[in-house]
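ARCHIVE CARD
Drawer: 12
Card no.: 0347
Subject: one protein chain, sequence and derived structure
Cross-reference: see card 0346
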Amino acid sequence: MNKKSILIVDDEESIRVSLEAILKKKYYVNTAGTGLTALKMLQNDHYDLTLSDIKMDDMNGIALLKKVKEKFPKIPVLLMTGYSSLNTAIEALRLGASDYLIKPCYKKEVFASVARCLKNNTTGNDEELNRKFQEKLNVLPVQKSLTKRELEVFSNLLSGMSDKDMSEKMAVSLPTIKFHLQNIYKKSGVNGRKGVLKIISSYKVR
């Protein structure tokens, strides 16, 4: 199996050195001290994952995320954040981040999050997902369209999977699953998991 390549982006050298030391045992690793440098490196070389801090001076992680998704949409982005910027991390998920790590990051957590993001970076088919679940989605009073990831969560929800099982199957963190579920409930105007399943069940017996 070919080793995956990771680009670490952080304006603190000590963080870059520490993460590189952890990840280079299993992956090819390069580092960048600024978002602008990272974009140039992504332009010139192939990377399977970008791991970036959110709080940086020249270009913060959110701005970098937007640029990566615009120019290199197939490259997953894993962001790191402190507790004080957790709301920003949630916003990053809305913008397309694959997941986020909360500092301080321990070795086990870093490996697990990186593995989840790389495993999850498979080419999907939005149209197929929409077609597959459209009939059931039409039953719900959805006010806004669901994203591809929300469709996946919705499918697992209908199969009766727990939040933890969804997390393991979809290779994302438990907070990320809860975030998507809350979006589904909000968009559908339904009060939680039981509300969704109740509507689907009532539809089946018609």
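Annotation on reverse: The beta strands are 5-9, 28-32, 49-53, 77-81, 99-102. The longest helix spans residues 174-188.
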